[in-house]
Amino acid sequence: QEPSTKRTKLVSRVTSLASLLPPVKTAPLKRIGQTLQRSISFRNVNQPEVATSGPRGSAGAASTGKRRDSKLWSETFDVKLGATQTLSPKEIKRQEAIFELAQGEQDLVEDLKLAKKAYHDPMRTLSIMTEQELNQIFGTLDSLIPLHEDLLSRLRDARKPDGLTEHVGHILTDWLPCLSSYTSYCSNQVKAKALLDQKKQDRRVQDFLQRCLQSPFSRKLDLWNFLDIPRSRLVKYPLLLREILKHTPNDHADRQLLDEAMLVVQSVVADINRRTGESECQYYKDRLLYTEDGQRDQLIDRSRTLSCHGELKNNRGLKLHVFLFQDVLVITRSVSFNDQPLSYELCRQPIPIRQLDLEDLLDGEMRVGGSIRGAFSNTERTKNFFRVSHRAGGQQQSHCFQASDTFNKQQWINCIRQAKEAAALTG
């Protein structure tokens, strides 16, 4: 069977925990430290997926959906003059932050139940997908529902009839370690997204999902949006805790417990991000196709992280899918065989990062299609290029890549520079 070149959607970088933990990736690329934050939300096709340190994520973006109307704590409990006279502005903000945490849990539980009731169960009942396929796509989503119902119940129990919540520190320090159960769910997302995209080629699946999308219950969110909600929630916990901490006085009984809770959640999220990144890296390593024995490189085999990957064009306009593993750059073209998930066929020898030279090319400096840029009236074709080169077998080899836009180009350049710096530090 002859593989057919297929346009690939780059894994949108997982809004990695970069903002929460170490920064690593940016929108256009998919970086592995950012796995969680952007997670598998594969969005722009020409943007590199940046792998960051955080549960990743990376797949195709879903349609823009409607958000629920949200109320403030003060609106919900009609906090007016009488109730607020004894509360400082800082305490009111603290109550708002605690309330936001609880409301987010309620929304999450509702969405997880909806994903099961409106998508998983009907597709199983109607035999639209097999049990094995549903297990792969939905992963351990079922087990997350009681987990968040538990936190929601604890937060509600801690709230007084007038809406005030005095202490949440003990609840969070006790509950947050439970988030480690997210490891298997987030690690499965890259495979889940690939299978879901594959199954969307099936007319029955396509029709079912389209009907759901058009139904009011979906809020114009597609199935992947719902499956990606847990990851989105996971990376938000450090931000939510930080907001509560910000408005908690140093002498408050919750202060020390909240500090401990922050350390716990950062540690848990960082560990999930690392494991998810390793899972994503392994997935793409398994999808590589070697056309020559000489293309196999132990630098690829021993890679545990994928710094970024995405679609780029060469100077002839051909689309390539480039992977930047921790120690090696791999140039491929995406191919598909029948209904199988995309594979990536190596079309050049892997380039060790330590031997790679990077050059940022000015707009208009690049030759396109073998002709001088000046021969073209459309200068767009000569924008956003950069060059990587290395010496192999006594000969200098170079590859020119064109990114989709200036931002995407800079993301690639930043990722490669970071990889080179890391390689230099490790000797």
Automatic annotation (TrEMBL):
GO CC annotations on file: cytoplasm
Domain called PH: residue spans: 305-421
InterPro entries: DBL_dom_sf, DH_dom, Endocytic_GEF_Adapter, GDS_CDC24_CS, PH-like_dom_sf, PH_domain, PH_RhoGEF3_XPLN, SOS1_NGEF_PH
UniProt keyword Repeat present: no
BP GO terms, sorted: intracellular signal transduction; myeloid cell development; positive regulation of Rho protein signal transduction
A Gene Ontology molecular function term of the record: guanyl-nucleotide exchange factor activity
Location of the protein in the cell: Cytoplasm
Keywords: Cytoplasm, Guanine-nucleotide releasing factor
Main location: cytoplasm
Domain (DH): residue spans on this chain: 93-275
Pfam family, one: SOS1_NGEF_PH
Highest taxon in the source lineage: Eukaryota
UniProt-annotated stretches for the region Disordered: 43-69
The keyword Cytoplasm belongs to this UniProt entry's keyword annotation: yes
Protein purpose: Acts as a guanine nucleotide exchange factor (GEF) for RhoA and RhoB GTPases.
Protein known as: Rho guanine nucleotide exchange factor 3
Organism listed in the record: Tetraodon nigroviridis
